[in-house]
Specification:
2 domains; eight-stranded antiparallel β-sheet; alpha+beta
Length: 204
Amino acid sequence: MRARTNAGPADALGGLISSLSSRLNLVELLAHRHIAQNIVGVFGCTSSTRPASPVVGMTIAESDTLRTLQWDGAAWVILSEPPQTWAIATYDQSGSKTLTATRAWTQRASGVFTAQARLTNFQAGAAGNAITMPTPFTLPNLYDIGGSFSWFDSGTATYAGTIIPSSVTAFGFSTDGVTNPFGVTPNFAPAAADVLTLTIHGRY
């Protein structure tokens, strides 16, 4: 008996169905590629090309900012980033006054920030009134901030102490064991030759 050499209609139909099925599977895989990447690793993008429909837990790495972020279901949370400039240029003592930041930076990771600064060239304030400065980021709670400072008062001495919360967008200063140098009513007005160095940390 001669062997069969030509496929019949049923065989051709079966081959077509198999081919279409394979292509559909490939299309589906490509459509959900970002989900697969999230499961096994980090999705690369830029700050302007983030995934439009991220899933909870999805992690991205931005090539332009060098930040790593994760989607928590409502927003992108920064997991890591390089140090960023802390643009602090004012303080408050009976009104907004200017200052110069000779070095000021901040860095965020998983909902927590760290910041350091060296500040000088203070516009004259008003002695006897509270001194406050703006936080690098808005705090979720009034007490989500802490830190330490050293303030060289050019007309008196050097004061050291701790950072205290003033509001969710400002902090003040406090020292222990000295009569009224800082706190609610500090006894001097910052001046141009003063130098403040501080380190703070908190949630944002």
